[in-house]
Design goal:
Layout: H1 8-41, H2 55-79, H3 83-113, H4 125-156, H5 166-191
Helix pairs in contact: 1-4, 1-5, 2-3, 2-5, 3-4, 4-5
């Protein structure tokens, strides 16, 4: 397909989708670098190989997966013309995103209660990596929540309908990326010690 073909509107839609994918690819590369650094650092003598991930991180995994489902249900409802149900699913997704972030901080508290801080004399390189990876992921979830708030605002302004879903679809794709990223990070941290 020639990307220069089509109406100006089709070109605009393609360019927005392409920009999102460029962003997702660059973020993927960043997290690949951090997990690679984690692997390389695991050869250090002071590396903890017997750490346990906080229970709150497991709960976060379930919450973020459910939030992807509720976002899909919001899109489906909008395509069916069920605006009120779309609103409900969007708000549930927003709440689940906030609960995810809350649980991440509960997880940080669990790590600190184990005696490890991010920096200082009670820090450890292993736990510092876990803090860093989870904190950077939280920042991306916050970006996803901001996108979701924009979608909710535009939904209330009736910008979206069954044939015009671009903003919602872009936010949904980014949200799925953030969700899949947490699944990857959780499994990586769980299995790679």
């Amino acid at each position: 397909m020639d990307l220069t073909q089509g109406t100006p509107e089709e070109k605009r839609i393609r360019s927005k989708k392409m920009m999102l994918w460029f962003g997702i690819i660059s973020l993927t590369m960043s997290f690949a670098a951090w997990t690679s650094a984690f692997i390389v650092s695991s050869t250090r003598e002071d590396w903890l190989s017997n750490f346990e991930l906080p229970t709150a991180f497991s709960i976060s995994l379930i919450i973020i997966l459910i939030s992807s489902i509720t976002f899909i249900l919001a899109k489906r409802s909008l395509k069916q013309g069920k605006r009120e149900l779309t609103t409900v699913w969007l708000l549930v997704t927003l709440i689940l995103g906030l609960v995810f972030i809350y649980n991440q901080f509960v997880g940080f508290r669990e790590i600190i209660d184990q005696g490890y801080n991010f920096t200082g004399p009670t820090s450890n390189i292993t736990m510092s990596y876990i803090f860093l990876i989870a904190a950077v992921h939280i920042m991306h979830v916050v970006v996803g929540l901001i996108c979701l708030l924009v979608v909710i605002y535009n939904h209330f302004k009736q910008k979206y309908n069954a044939t015009n879903l671009l903003g919602l679809e872009l936010a949904l794709n980014f949200w799925h990326f953030v969700d899949l990223l947490w699944v990857y990070l959780f499994l990586f941290l769980y299995f790679f010690r």
